[in-house]
TrEMBL record:
Pfam families: GATase_6, SIS. The lineage of its organism: Bacteria, Bacillati, Actinomycetota, Actinomycetes, Mycobacteriales. CDD domains: GFAT (cd00714), SIS_GlmS_GlmD_1 (cd05008), SIS_GlmS_GlmD_2 (cd05009). SUPFAM superfamilies: N-terminal nucleophile aminohydrolases (Ntn hydrolases), SIS domain. Catalyzes the first step in hexosamine metabolism, converting fructose-6P into glucosamine-6P using glutamine as a nitrogen source. This is Glutamine--fructose-6-phosphate aminotransferase [isomerizing]. It catalyses: D-fructose 6-phosphate + L-glutamine = D-glucosamine 6-phosphate + L-glutamate. The active site is at residues 2, 620. Homodimer. Residues 298-437, 470-615 form the SIS domain. Its EC number is 2.6.1.16. Keywords: Aminotransferase, Cytoplasm, Glutamine amidotransferase, Repeat, Transferase.
């Protein structure tokens, strides 16, 4: 999500900044901009929607002289608040035009801050959450205890911001200084000789220096051509940052040191889920409430729906299957989940009181888009869950929740899938809240549990070495089966899809209860079966039934690879391999149990020598039916 670069030194800053933006294009973006300081109190800003080439054309037209200078910053924006337009592109400036900011992330409390600024007579010129930051710093710089002190003004504002953000500020009157900060989102310093860089990742400056410093959480940094100072948001220098030498080449740097983007994306899942949840619970006089991103549906409508359809394709469909368990449980409204390609040609029963939830990472999948159009023709209302701001599906929908994972480059969905699951649960909680099927404190509790999941996902990532070892042993078997019950069933389907698409291996996911109705005939000596165990603390009947299923297949010679909750000793005797994941509420367990299956599929594919990011015959966005 968003690429940020800042430069102070002796080179032509525009060249450095534009090159850096080009190298960070892989992060995904929908607009770009630069701010260059001339060193004499002037600042030149250009920003443009669309590809970097659009910005470069504008810069060419304006002429190099306008952008001469040895310090500046640049930004590629992945839209979250506000459409991907010229006016929402970064940098944003204060009313004097001297102070500029670029931002990655989400300022969660931007709404009250925006009101505060508007009440003070400041006219904001964009729809972004970002712009509040620059006006607040301008006010702190103009008056009060931090007046005239650029760094202190920035720090004072940082202390007022909630959310996840990287912010970089430049001031025309301080051309040799850049002030930046991070809270949850990334920021690295590049340490050169007589020049300094800051950026979202090291690709931005790897051609100039290999000496870097990774900032810790809630740290600010001031860079000048001669050095850098890291502090906390109170200005205290007693903090720890991590200097390191970059030993990756450029291609590896883009992939965070991995061979494939997908492996990096698997690791990004805690952040992807955390970012997707940010801002969706707003504290109010009743304790708090769930809010969507773009809400063009009245609460009254949410109350009146008598049926929900979830439509999607591939992994997004599996995320939809999980939505059924949560939405029906929390709201008692019947939910049907359907492949978008089937839904549209089937003549489903739809009317004004039907809510259709369309789940799509790309927002452009032809089948899902056509399903949305069909639903709208039948007067149903549509809520989109999408990862791409401004894509066609959210544009044509009545409400939207964005999964804020940043671009997913690997064709196989990983971080987008987990974020879709979280977003589907938000839909369930929003419906439960509007319909009163959950008390506000229950909604708040469920949301808090959901918010605690990213930490647990990070712990599941620690199982990677064990999962990889199992994957390497099984890399050349012809078939792998996946079994689950309840929410473990869609997880089994997702695990099988990952293995098919990445490793070109025969893989099938089954509802464990179906075993005796046919699939058990497939079990033979040594056949690997990956089993997703429900929590022993959840519904006891689910756990004991699955335990008997494992016994049955093990007795017939299957090699059982069991994903089970830590401390679930009952399963140990029946597991040839046991992958332990942390305990979580039943509905949320898929956010954990899916992760080893992704790692497994990627490792098998690598062991078989396949391109993990670009599996054969597949496209990331399927824009034809
Ligand atoms: O962009 P979408 O979420 O609409 O895409 C849907 C499917 O094409 C997608 O999930 C596909 O199944 C992935 N390759 C799965 O990893």
């Amino acid at each position: 999500m968003c690429g940020i670069v800042g430069y102070v030194g002796y080179r032509d800053a525009l060249g450095v900044v534009v090159d850096a933006l080009r190298r960070m294009e892989y992060r995904g973006y929908d607009s770009a901009g630069v701010a260059i300081l001339d060193g004499n109190g002037g600042i030149a800003v250009e920003r443009k929607a669309g590809r970097l080439a659009n910005l470069e054309a504008e810069l060419d037209e304006a002429g190099a002289a306008k952008f001469a200078g040895t310090s500046g910053m640049g930004h590629t924006r992945w839209a979250t608040h506000g459409a991907p337009t010229d006016r929402n592109a970064h940098p944003h400036r204060d009313c004097s035009g001297k102070l500029a900011v670029v931002h990655n992330g989400i300022i969660e409390n931007f709404a009250p801050l925006r009101r505060e600024l508007e009440d003070a007579g400041i006219e904001l010129r964009s729809d972004t959450d970002t712009e509040v930051a620059v006006h607040l710093v301008a006010r702190a710089y103009a008056e009060g205890p931090t007046a005239g002190d650029f760094t202190a003004s920035v720090l004072a504002v940082l202390r007022r911001l909630d959310g996840a953000f990287t912010l970089v500020f430049t001031h025309a009157d301080h051309p040799g200084t850049i002030v930046a900060a991070r809270q949850s989102t990334p920021l690295v310093v590049g340490v050169g000789q007589g020049e300094m860089f800051i950026a979202s990742d090291v690709t931005a400056f790897i051609e100039h220096t290999r000496e870097a410093v990774e900032l810790g959480q809630n740290q600010a940094v001031v860079i000048t051509a001669d050095g850098y100072t890291v502090t906390d948001f109170d200005g205290d220098t007693d903090v720890t940052s991590r200097p390191f030498t970059i030993d990756w080449d450029l291609a590896a740097a883009e992939k965070g040191g991995h061979d494939y983007f997908m492996l990096k994306e698997i690791e990004e899942q805690p952040t992807a889920v955390a970012d997707t949840l940010i801002g969706h619970f707003v504290v109010d006089e009743n304790g708090g409430r769930i809010v969507l991103d773009e809400q063009r549906l009245a609460d009254q409508e949410l109350r009146e729906f008598d049926k929900v359809f979830v439509v999607a394709c591939g992994s997004s469909y599996h995320a939809g299957l999980l939505a059924k368990y949560a939405i029906e449980h929390w709201t008692r409204v019947p939910v049907e989940v359907e492949l978008a390609s089937e839904f549209r040609y089937r003549d489903p029963v739809l009317d004004r009181s039907t809510l259709v939830v369309a789940v799509s990472q790309s927002g452009e999948t032809a089948d899902t888009l056509e399903a949305v159009r069909h639903a709208k023709e039948q007067k149903a209302r549509v809520l989109a869950i999408c990862n791409t701001n401004g894509a066609q599906i959210p544009r044509e929908s009545d409400a939207v929740i964005y999964t804020r994972t940043g671009p997913e480059i690997g064709v196989a969905s990983t971080k987008a899938f987990l974020a879709q699951v979280a977003a589907n649960y938000l839909v369930g909680l929003a419906l439960a809240q509007a319909r009163g099927t959950k008390y506000p404190d229950e909604v708040a509790r469920e949301f808090a549990e959901l918010e605690s999941m990213p930490k647990l996902i990070a712990r599941v990532l620690e199982t990677a070495p064990q999962v990889r070892a199992i994957a390497r042993e099984l890399a050349h078997v012809p078939t792998v089966l996946f079994l689950g019950r309840h929410v473990g069933y869609p997880v089994a389907l997702e695990g099988a899809l990952k293995l098919k698409e990445l490793a070109y291996m025969h893989a099938e996911g089954f509802a464990a209860g179906e075993l005796k109705h046919g699939p058990i005939a497939l079990i033979e000596d040594g056949l690997p079966v990956i089993v997703v165990m429900p929590s022993p603390k959840g519904r006891a009947v689910l756990h004991s039934k699955l335990l008997s299923n494992i016994r049955e297949i093990q007795a017939r010679g299957a090699r059982t690879i069991v994903i089970a909750e830590e401390g679930d000793d009952t399963v140990r005797p029946f597991a040839d391999d046991l992958i332990e994941i942390p305990a979580a509420p039943t509905l949320f367990q898929p956010l954990l149990s899916t992760v080893p299956l992704q790692i497994f599929a990627a490792e098998v594919a690598q062991a078989r020598g396949y391109d993990v990011d670009k599996p054969r015959n597949l496209a990331k966005s399927v824009t034809v039916e």
